[in-house]
Amino acid sequence: MSEQPGKVSPHDPQVARRNVRLALLLGGVALAFFVAFFVAMA
Amino acid sequence: MEKAKFQAAAAALLAAMAGVAQASPYNLPKGVTELTQEVYGLHMLIFWIVCGIGVVVFGAMIYSIFAHRKSRHPKPADFHESIPVEIAWTVIPFIILIGMAIPAAGTLIKMEDTENSEFTIKVTGYQWKWQYEYIDQDIDFFSTLSTDSNEARQLGSGVDVYKVDNYLLDVDKPLVLPVGAKVRLLLTSNDVIHAWWVPEVTGKKDAIPGYINKMWIQIEEPGVYRGQCAELCGRDHGFMPIVVEALPREEFEAWVAEQGGRMPGEDAGPPQMASAARVAAADIGVASEAGMSDAGAGASEPVGDAPAADQASLMEQGETVYGNYCSACHQANGQGMAAANFPALVDSPIVTGPADAQIQQILQGKGAMPAFGYLSDMDIASVITYTRNSWGNDAGVVTPADVAAQR
Amino acid sequence: MSHAATHDEHHDHGPEAGIMRWIKTTNHKDLGTLYLWFSMIMFFIGGLMSLVIRAELFEPGLQFVQPEFFNQMTTMHALVMIFGGVMPAFVGLANWMIPMMVGCSDLALPRVNNWGFWILPFAFGLLLSTLFMDGGAPAAGWTMYPPLVLQTGDAFPFLIFAIHLMGISSITGAINVIVTILNMRAPQMTLLKMPLFVWSWLITAYLLLAVMPVLAGAVTMLLTDKYFGTSFFTAAGGGDPVMFQHIFWFFGHPEVYILILPAFGIVSTIIPTFARKRLFGYDSMVYAMASIAFLSFIVWAHHMFTVGMPLAAELFFMFATMLIAVPTGVKVFNWIATMWRGSMTFETPMLFALGFVFLFTIGGFSGLMLAIAPVDFQYHDSYFVVAHFHYVLVPGAVFSIIAAIYYWIPKWTGHMYNERLGQIHFWLSAIFINVTFFPQHFAGLAGMPRRIPDYATQFTDWNVISSVGAFVYFVVQFVWAYNMIVNCIMKKGEPATSRVWEGAHGLEWTVPSPAPYHTFEEPPVLDESEVQGAHADEHQHEVQGKPA
Question: In CATH, what is the architecture of B2-111?
Fold first, then answer.
């Protein structure tokens, strides 16, 4: 709740790495929904 | 200002309630069955609850807008949370909701109870008409938009629709039911999803291919009740009305007898009965006044597979069939509608070529054109003969036997 | 603005010149602008389609279009308005405001942001091109129910592909919002100090992430049913047409809240500003939005009470749906409590926000009526439903978007709109939106089904009124476009101060107007007076807006 990144530019390499990690995780979840759903229906 | 509109609307609804109960232009009809009347009661109950909440909420807002504007209330207060208040306006609505849910659940349970029905009718949706099969009485017919409405509703028809009786809500042959009997309806579809809805008789239920949905109705007052398909089912979704005629029991029995009396006992499948039913309906004057004039012409026609299929009678019957099933797309003048991809029949290679191909296409359908295999051999032969000898086409006669050979 | 030296590599401090600026841009403000322009164009295109509908329905009989084209218009109107109008508008607002509200220099994934936007023109190019194809545009309704939708002609694969593209765009946008909010907040900007608009978007983004893949799956199954011989949804092949409806509405109901939660956020931002009083019940507003989001996943079948579900399912979905009224009510009550004993003025953004609260509540009332399953059998697929969802979408979602633009455009362009024109725009919009949609309640109750191109004569009066309202409402929107374009964008209006509104609080008001191309390159120090929520006084005492 109180995590304070402190750096706020996406161009900062450290921030960018964290961002990409989280984005890939979320994107992976979305893709997994799609695949799981399709497999369940088929 | 919105508030004023809201009150005007409430007043309008109130006025409607006090006025005639049926077919109000403002409100749900009370209807003629126990269930529709109960639903009407629920509807009004919820409506008044909602109005009450509206008065409180909008009243508070309007008072605040008036009294707490900067010119009257220059110094804003500094409160911004209150747990007890939040709890109160969570719990009170919850209690109101429970008060609404209990009667609603009761009505719902009653609606789903289709036990102990007197007899069963199977209702099948087609693009764009309804089929009614009285399982127990062995009666079966199609119900389509009346010819008058169908002509008037064409783009640029030039017909004044106000002069058409029951414009768009009239059929060639209504569903006839006895007053006071609990009738079970089984709903299904032959193509896409439709929904059967006659507000004064029942709420709607979907007719879905591969599914059989159940509902029951018990009409308490004789009369004619009108509704229409309520689920988007393609181009002519707006043009497949439903008409229910509730008759006193003796008259209903007479109607059934008429229908049954004309039934050919032999190999007569449903389609032949459809023709027979149409004839009988004309005889006893059940069918709608406007819609019957054309269909009634069929009364003098040979019914079923009668051999007297000469070209003149085929042409005459074919014109009626064409009007009911074909002209919506291919148009009365056979020119089709290029813009909508409905081909012209004039000089069409299929219509002027070998008859077998045309018979097959009508039996099986093709692309956007639905299959018409449920029509009788006579109907199909007549409509093919009609298309082959109209609008300058000259491609010979097709007999019911030709059609039968292709099935 | 003088910290460029510390960022030696990435970017200079101004936009590129010419058209390439807009194609290559990764700047959240540029992309926000692009999204908003795109959305405005789509609103006008979708509006024109609705005028075709209303013109044909002006009187009974067919006067202008064939039924098939009418069905194409209803279908395309919905798709364009939902996916091209409302959603991109909210994404545009998120682009502009979220970084400025949480105090970071850009969205977390600027390039993804660029792709996410530039997918959209192609998606809608494909979709709109179907209007010129053999067989015309999709005509089976935006709900795309099989088997009907499988009768679509050449347009079918274009429809499916366009929806896939819109889905990808939405998912990338949602990921960007979530990552930005979770990773990039300024120091001291704890989650419960965020402006409610940011909260509403965080919840919306999770909803998008959860349901857009489901929609993509459903339309893909339609595609394989049509072209690859599967029968997921065709009864003849052992499939189940009702299953599609379950899947569609499992997407579709959360989608409804995707279209309204950001509106809640906007209204929760605007009302405190013009009431000069902090938002009442900040925490309960957040919890209410979270509850609505959760409930939205378990109520989908109320869109399909008439398909013939088992009694137990009908009861469950009826009760769950009614339950949504509780958190929604809490939000309305909180807004009123915020106004209560405030010191209100009624500039255009406030008028639209108040119009939202009134008219959205009416939509909520009809929603509650629709939730009652046995009565829904009468309301379902009638014009009552059309009236209901237009009340929540037009004076709901669309009014909130208009309010947000009036509210923030001085910050974006540095110039004020014309207040008089704004007031005229509000009153005419508010009157004619009711003229358009209120009569549809009556038409529906009297028995008029939706999606019909022609109707029985007893419905004429309501339809005449409704059509007149629709045409005037459409024309009135040009007053707004003129006001925005001439006074704000072309800078003919008064220059705006950086605070713009007397009662405004939030980090976005601490930067100059117009907001510089890059803001918060270095994290700002969060002054507690800029915090909207109740949590401001955890640190500080005197935060109240100083009345003039």
Answer: Orthogonal Bundle (1.10)
